[in-house]
Design a protein that fits this description.
176 residues, Diphtheria Toxin Repressor, domain 2, 80% helix, elongated
Length: 176
């Protein structure tokens, strides 16, 4: 019987470096998916992301490919290229580009909720709005709400409701 030296330190560092085959596949799929997502951006948005030259060329080639099988192979190639580079900065730039749209949508929904509250609740919603935005023009908003109510009763186009939305948009952008 031979005694093996007890190298627990080396064994622990070796275990940390081992990556399972499943994890490598997940990483490869994630890299390929990021490539697809970048490819779905406009050309200007893609150009704003700092990419290695080979990856940028592969993405531009993929934009020109029309056949599905060739496009699939090109996406696999893009995934292969992306596995060899650090994805974190690219992922961060991609998220920065795409998340600002979500913020804009949330702002618009917020404004729509205020407009709907003003049209449904009237003075109570107006008081709440004035607490949040003290520089709002109470008289102008009341007038627009009255006109909007009148338009809806007469089944006219919602011109005043649009005016309320525009006013709210300028009101909330003053602080931002």
């Amino acid at each position: 019987m031979t005694n093996k030296p007890n190298n627990t330190e080396n064994d622990e560092s070796f275990d940390e470096e081992i990556i399972s085959k499943s994890q490598r596949k997940r990483d490869a799929t994630a890299a390929q998916d990021l490539g697809k997502n970048i490819l779905s951006l406009s050309q200007d948005a893609q150009n704003s992301i700092a990419l290695p030259e080979t990856l940028e060329k592969a993405l531009n080639d993929a934009r020109r490919i029309k056949k599905n099988s060739a496009l699939k192979r090109q996406l696999q190639y893009i995934g292969k290229l992306m596995r060899s580079i650090d994805l974190e900065p690219i992922q961060a730039q991609y998220l920065k580009l795409t998340n600002h749209y979500d913020k804009d949508i949330k702002k618009l929904h917020h404004l729509e909720k205020w407009r709907d509250r003003l049209l449904l609740e009237g003075d109570k919603a107006l008081e709440d709005l004035l607490h949040e935005k003290p520089n709002a023009d109470r008289q102008h908003l009341r007038q627009l709400v009255r006109q909007s109510t009148k338009e809806s009763k007469l089944k006219k186009p919602p011109k005043s409701a649009r005016e309320i939305f525009k006013y709210l948009k300028t009101l909330f952008e003053e602080v931002d």
